[in-house]
Amino acid sequence: MERLIIDTDPGVDDAQAILLATAHPNAKVEALLAVGGNVGLDHTVRNALTIVEVTGQDIPVYAGCAYPLVMFGEDASHFHGHDGLGDIGLVPKVRQAESEHASLALLRMANDAPGEYTLVAIGPLTNIAVALKLDPELPNKLKRLVVMGGAVTGRGNTSNRTAEFNIFADPEAAHVVFESWGKAGKMLELVDWEVTLRNGIPAALLERWFDMDTPRARFFKAVSEGALAFTRKYYHQDMIWAADALALSVAVEPDCVREAVARHVGIGLEGRYERGQTAVEWRTNRPTPPNASIVMEVDTDRFHALMEAGLY
Ligand code: RIB
Ligand code: CA
User: Fold this and answer.
1) What is the pLDDT of residues 247-276, one digit of tens each?
2) Ligand 1 neighbour 76 (Cβ under 6 A)
3) Does the CB atom of residue 227 touch ligand 1 within 6 A?
4) Fold of the domain built from segment(s) 2-197+244-309
5) Are strands 117-121 and 144-148 parallel, antiparallel or unpaired?
6) pLDDT tier at 74 (50, 70, 90 boundaries)?
7) Domain boundaries, the chain
8) Cα–Cα distance measured from residue 292 to residue 174, given in angstroms and rounded to the nearest whole number
9) 170 ligand 1 Cβ < 6 A
10) Going by DSSP bridges, is the β-strand pair 117-121/239-240 parallel, antiparallel, or unpaired?
11) What is the pLDDT averaged over residues 51-76?
């Protein structure tokens, strides 16, 4: 059983990912840690509560950091909508966030059950970096850390061209997290933007899911239609890319990974085109110990099946 803590900035694909994880028989989502990212923290907290209500599960939501450690980069409201869930007016009906800060909740849970939790980061890494500053032993108190982030050969999705959003949104936080895992002699599992691009969801499959008449499928359709329209209009591609759902697939079913490589990943902190980069030491004759297991290929059909299973 994967006991999951999901750090998230919902976010259309965050919503898709949480549907997947809360439906998987081998996973139990035990907390959502909201962070500012795609949209502001007020919206990401509200969206996390909305998503929990759709799942019908009793999952606590903790509000975390509203802003990056050092400076604001950009948000992703152009894709996710101003409210983060497609601007269709979804709000939580009754649930409220816990009073404990997300970073403190993460440390409490990790210390209460050392080695038990898999932390899945599908937003900027600010909450986790703050937790690491409070307890540098965190890497040794988690079973796994799966990160959706980065662009391992520089094919980014942000204004600096080479960086992926979650890293670009808070490069200093990413630096703290990646270096902390390396110093602890551990590797985080990295699901980057480029493996996401290689595993898109074709429109034909989406439209079959949109026709499913269940509460989860209706919610999935409501928040995903805008993403399909965006990709068609701006990328001229008849598909969507569900980065966060891919990361949760790796978290709940590690066997869906077909190829992963252990490398050291450094984080660019300055420079017009370098800030937020995930700079990988691809040379194999170098002594730099790896801090990441980079997912290069997954079983695409299995990934799609896991997404569909989240809609019943
Ligand atoms: O680059 C993809 C990541 O940023 C995902 O977490 C998605 O939510 C986007 O905001
Ligand atoms: Ca996200």
Assistant:
1) 999 999 999 999 999 999 999 999 999 999
2) yes
3) no
4) Inosine-uridine Nucleoside N-ribohydrolase; Chain A (3.90.245)
5) parallel
6) confident
7) 2-197+244-309
8) 12
9) no
10) unpaired
11) 95
